[in-house]
Amino acid sequence: MKKNVWVTLVSLGLIGALVGCNGVGQKETATSSPIPQVQKQEEAKSVEAKGSKLIGLADLVPHNDLMNEVKPILKEKGIEVEIVSTASDATWLDKLNNGEVDFAFFAHWPYVEEYNETNGAKIANVGNIHVEPIAAYSVKYTKTEEIPEHAKFIIPNDATNAYRALKIIEQAGFIKLDPNLKELKASVKDIIEYIKPIEIVEIDSIQIIGLAQDFDVYITNTNKALEAGVDTTKYLFREAADSPYANIVAVKEEKKDDPAIKALVEALRSDAIQTFIEEKYNGAVIPAK
Q: The organism sits in which domain of life (predicted)?
């Protein structure tokens, strides 16, 4: 009996020695491939974005239309998006700057930049999404040539949209702007000549369409026109398609690298959304380059 036990132990020892000599255990450890650093980083970002909730502000048209298109895409990635308002007002960038929301999707960069300069804010542009050419409309006239002398024009009063409006009024042959304007900002004070006698009134852009009946010509942003049901193909004159005023996704500077925000921008700039814009808005809204 003792002899059999001794033989068994010796046999086991020899087997262990042979396994050790063959290095099977070491080989298995050496050949187990570690996750590359880049892959680890991407997985970390994915985990961080998954289960995220973004709270945002988006104008009704076309911004909220686009958000409704990307919500299912983001939901598949584990990102929930809640739009808390679709009626923009002058407090929206305040709400973003105060941290009440994660992003705002309603304005172009020069408008946001002006806000930053005025308020000492640090709001960043994380993606150009679309362009809404600003245009001149009328409830009284169908052609630019019909506009009489001493006609009353109403335009937005913020410096960037006022510049855009005044620029197309200039291109239509009514005025001349100061050629030495150093920035894409202006007001009626920058008109150096009235080629045709007209009156131009500046007012908050939110009120313009409601006052359209009181003016011969009103100039407004495309999203405001679309929201009000204005036929945007029946403009008198408008900005060219190469306008630099792309609508952006705006966030606080500290949030610009947030994985969920990056996923939002990627979805809004996808081929599917660009095709949606082109097919739905018939040139009134144009995908940003």
A: Bacteria
Q: Which residues of 259-269 are buried (b: 16+ CB within 10 A; e: fewer)?
A: bbbebbbebbb
pLDDT recorded at residue 245? 87
User: What one-letter code names the amino acid at 200?
Assistant: I
**Residue 86 carries which side chain, given as an amino acid letter?**
T
Tell me how crowded residue 225 is: count the other CB atoms within 10 A of its CB: 23
Exposure of 233 by Cβ count < 10 A (0-12 exposed, 13-18 middle, 19+ buried)?
exposed
Mean pLDDT by 10 residues, the chain (289 residues): 38 38 34 35 44 92 96 96 93 97 95 94 97 94 97 94 96 96 89 98 95 97 90 92 85 97 98 95 88
Which tokens hold the place of 23?
Answer: 């290095």
Neighbours of 54 (CB within 10 A): 21
Q: Please tell me the pTM assigned to this model.
A: 0.68
DSSP element (H, E) containing 54:
strand 52-58
Return the amino acid letter for 199.
E
Q: E-strand spans in 64-204? A: 79-85, 103-105, 123-131, 135-137, 151-156, 175-177, 191-194, 198-203
- What domains does the chain contain, in order, with CATH numbers? 39-133+245-287 (3.40.190.10), 135-238 (3.40.190.10)
